[in-house]
Amino acid sequence: MKLLLQNIRELVQVEEQPAEKVSGKDMALLKTVKDAYLLIDDELISDFGPMKDMDRVQVGDDTLVEIDCRDRLVMPAWCDSHTHIVYAGSREMEFVGRIRGLTYQEIANRGGGILNSAKLLHETPAEVLFEQASARILEVMRQGTGAIEIKSGYGLNTEDELKMLRVIQWLRQTTPVCIRATFLGAHAVPAEYKNNVSGYVDLVINEMIPQVAAEELADYIDVFCEDGYFSPTDTERILMAGIKYGLRPKIHANEMGFSGGVQVGVKYNALSVDHLEYMDREEIDLLLGSETMPTILPGASFFLNMPYAPARRMIDEGLPVALATDYNPGSSPSGNMSLAGSLACLKQDLLPEEVINAATINGAYAMGVSDRLGSIAKGKIANLFITSKIPGCDYLFYSYGSNLVDTLILNGEIQNI
Fold first, then answer.
1. Is 213 in the same domain as 331?
2. Is the pLDDT of residue 299 over 70?
3. Residues 185-195: what's their mean pLDDT?
4. 77, 179 in Cβ contact below 8 A?
């Protein structure tokens, strides 16, 4: 089937020569076509341009579907490169605890946080996890997300980590969203290993990773490299083991302090280092000479009332930046990419153009899919959305919290959501 989108007010994030990512001052540049058309043939973008040139398009197909996009924008679907959406239940009592003055770490020390989610997940059948996660996938689709990375990490034992990853595989098989899976067995130290962190690291390396690889359940491997969780030495051991099995690293780094996670990430060619609330000259210089994507998660900073990553400085220094939601039950219970973009504008001084680059092409890079997603380019997969009637890109983030997605198209097909 062919889809022809006509009279588009503005076709956003178009590329004649596709790039794998956008860095530094180029992040403020956003190529668009006003009064445009877009032709989709099966699942691929076939052609686009200004309406005045549309007569050169040879559609010639009885199955053509035409959509009038007058007064609407068309842009790539969001690429959310950091989430934890396979989880059991919610943690609103911790939310209330923080209102009463408890810190994230104090809640964790009382058995809350990640360990609370691990207990709930252990008690929840895979079928229920799948149903809950499917509802969250549908929710973020309605908000314009077309690609999403999902981490394990609420199992913290071999059986439950495998259960999570199998649920992610199940989601891959049943949803049109592009899903990448990340093994995060080293998300927290289970209570029974509280005084034996190296023993738990041994379990991750010697038992979990081989079984994850044997079933081909993950694309990437992640570690929460942070004081009180896993040290740079622990992280290196786990990453080296994962790399042996073909799992490229992605790291939780510098959320609560200067953890050394960025240094380890660059050393092992991590696809991304995520959070980055604490960054200094050393980390920026290391990332400038690497292929690792710095990824900001403003939803977590907002929800936990913690510092925001210095994204403005990173971009001004020449770095690329990706934007993700960190959708999870404890520190960022929202998968709304537009809202995350508003926070990046308001709290991190990013321009709307920079946010769009961060949430599309750079997010796709941080998932390893920028060769086929994240921009409007001929030959790329047609994952995009049509907005409601809005005046321009700036309005997406100005109107914070509003869902301005009217129609979602994934793999060239209109989604009935």
1. yes
2. yes
3. 95
4. no
- Tell whether 154 and 222 lie within a shared domain: yes
**With the CA atoms of 353, 354, 355 and 359 taken in that order, what torsion angle do they form, in degrees rounded to the nearest 10?**
100
310 and 209 in a common domain = yes
Reported as a single tens digit per residue, the pLDDT across 209-249 is 999 999 999 999 999 999 999 999 999 999 999 999 999 99
Predicted structure pTM score = 0.96
Task: Say whether both 111 and 72 belong to one domain.
Answer: no
Q: For residues 134 and 44, state if they share a domain.
A: no
- Cβ contact 406:68 at 8 Å: no
CA angle 332, 336, 337 (to 5 degrees): 105
Q: Is residue 370 part of a domain?
A: no
- Contact 335/324 with Cβ under 8 angstroms? no
What is the side-by-side strand order in the sheet with 248-253? 78-80, 145-151, 178-186, 220-225, 248-253, 272-275, 293-296, 322-323
Domains held by the chain: number: 2
- Which of 5, 11, 18, 53 lies closest to 34, judged by CA? 11
Which domain, by its residues, includes 306? 79-365
Please give the pLDDT value at position 63: 66
